[in-house]
Structures are given as structure tokens and as C-alpha cells.
Amino acid sequence: MSTVLWANTLIDGAVDSDESDKFTLFRHSKKLEKLTNQLKVTSFISTQDFTDMQFNLSADDLPEGMESTDELMAEKGVWVSGVDAVVMLENLISHISTNKINFGLLKNDFEEILIELKDSLESAIKAKSANGMFNFSVVM
Question: How far is CA 80 from CA 41, 43, 50, 138, in A?
């Protein structure tokens, strides 16, 4: 079982997940974190929410009245504004594309990183246009 990221929006209290496995973004989170620090934009790591993973690794039941971890994440999760997410993702895409940043030692995941970042940007734009929030849920 591998760990991946899913891009999510929180709009009017409802979570919408793209449910698209972003394995490469998760694998290179530390490098993406360094890049966001260099670019002085929202930290890549700060957009990651562990609600789903923590719940699935625990023996806990969902709180009364909740039917999914999405509801729990909406209430207690880590979120950034759609505006900040768009700025971060656009800056990463531009910087990585322009500078042909290498991701990986044996295999360069450059193309996969760009595909997953652009895919995530779609969700961030959706959040921004609705004055909503964005995160990456860590899913296993």
C-alpha cells in the first residue's frame, strides 16, 4: 500500500476531493518544500493534511453524526486559502519548468511532478474562485 496526496477543496463547509493519486508529489515533498521556501510562497508541507491517514491508522470511530473522514477534515483539518494555494502552485510550476529541476537520482520525475502540480492547480483555482480553501490530504 503506497501513500499518496489528493488535492481537496473546502467550499461552503463541503470537501471535494479530486481522488487522483499524486504519488510523485508525496515522494518529493521535501524537495518541493525546499523550493517553496526559496520562492517565499506558502510552504508545500503546510498544505498537507493527515486527518484521513491518522483516522485510518487508529481504532477510533468517527464522531457522532459524521459519515466520512472528509467531514472530519472539513472541521479539524489543515487548510490554506485558495489564493495562497494558486500562488504556490503557479510559482512551483513556473520555477520547475523554467529551470528544468531534476527530481530523483535514478529516474527524473520532472514530467510527473509537472503533471501532478498542474492537476492540483485546477483544484486550487476552483477553491480560489469560490473564496474557498485548499489542501492535500495524505492518503494510504
Answer: 12, 10, 14, 15
CA distance 87 to 123: 13
Instruction: Give pTM, 2 decimals.
Output: 0.94
Instruction: Report the number of distinct structural domains present in the chain.
Output: 1
Could you please report the per-residue DSSP string of 25-86? HHHTHHHHHHHHHHHTSS-SGGGEE-HHHHHHHS-PPPPTT--SHHHHHHHH---EEHHHHH
Report whether 49 contacts 138 (CB < 8 A).
yes
- Cβ neighbour number for residue 115 with a 10 Å cutoff: 14
Residue spans of the chain under pLDDT 70: 1
Distant-in-sequence, close-in-space partners of 132: CB < 8 Å, separation ≥ 6: 9, 10, 11, 12, 82, 126
Which range marks the domain in which residue 70 is found? 4-139
